[in-house]
Amino acid sequence: MFTLYGAPGWGSAISELMFSLCGEPYRWVDVFGFDQPGEARDRLLALNPLGQVPTLQSEDGAVLTESAAIALMLADRHPALIPPHGDPQRARFYHWLVWLVAAVYPTLTYGDYPQRWTAAGAQELKKSTDAHREEAYRWLESQLGDSAFLLGDNITLLDAYLPVLVRWQPREGWFQASAPKLWGIAQRVKAQKALQSVVARNQL
Which pLDDT tens digit goes with each residue over 4-28? Predict the structure, then answer.
C-alpha cells in the first residue's frame, strides 16, 4: 500500500483526490506544520529533502513527489481515468496537466509567499502573480465547452486539481463570477461519492 504524506488544504489534497477517484488504497500521514521547523518538518525531510507535499512512498520504500508525476503513475495503474490512446483528448490531458503545474502553480508559490523571494518588491510580486494567475484561468475557461468535466463528460485525474485550485487565490467568488465553467466542474468533482472523506478532511 502507498503512504501519502500531506497536510489538509495543501497541494497534497490533489493527490488524495486522485487516489480516491482511482479507488487505490493508501495510508494518509498528516504532516501539518511541515512548512515550519519542528517534528512534522523533520519527519517529511527524512523522506523528501525538498520538504514538499505531496510526498508518496511505495511499499518498497521508493519516494515519488510532484502531483503531476503522481497523476501519471496513477494513470498507468488506472487507465480508465485518462483518455485512451488515439483520443485527441489524451494530448490535451498531458498539455493541461503540465500547464497547470508549470504555468499556474508557480504563481501560488511566489505570490503567496513573496517575502521569501524578494525583500524589496514583495507587494509588486504578489500583484503581478495574482494578475497572471487570473489571466491563466480565463484562458483555460475559454478552452472549455459545455461538458461536465475538463475533457468531456467522463471524469479524469486532471479534474482532481480543480476542487483545490478554486479554494486558493483568487478564491471561489472570483471563479463563480469570472470562470463559472471551472467552478462548476470543481463542484461536480467534489460531489463524487468516493471523494467525500477527502473533501471533508481538506475543507474543500
Answer: 999 999 999 999 999 999 999 999 9
Element (H, E) at 27: strand 26-30
Measured CA to CA, the distance from residue 157 to residue 90 in angstroms comes to: 12
Rounded average pLDDT over 76-87: 97
Same fold, 2-80 and 88-191: no
What confidence tens digit (pLDDT) does each residue in 27-75 have?
Answer: 999 999 999 999 999 999 999 999 999 999 999 999 999 999 999 999 9
Half-sphere exposure of 13 (CA within 13 A, CB side): 25
Query: pTM to 2 decimals?
Result: 0.96
What is d(CA 194, CA 157) in angstroms, rounded to the nearest whole number?
Answer: 13
Tens digits of residue pLDDT in 114-151: 998 988 889 999 999 999 999 999 999 999 999 999 99
The angle subtended at Cα 43 by Cα 41 and Cα 44, nearest 5°, is 65
Indicate the domain borders of the chain: 2-80, 88-191
CATH T-level fold of 88-191: Glutathione S-transferase Yfyf (Class Pi); Chain A, domain 2 (1.20.1050)
CB neighbourhood size of 108 (10 A): 16
23: exposed, middle or buried (Cβ count in 10 Å: 0-12, 13-18, 19+): exposed
- Evaluate whether the domain defined by 2-80 bears CATH number 3.40.30.10: yes
133 and 111 Cβ atoms separated by less than 8 Å: yes
- Tell me the three cell numbers of residue 37: 521547523
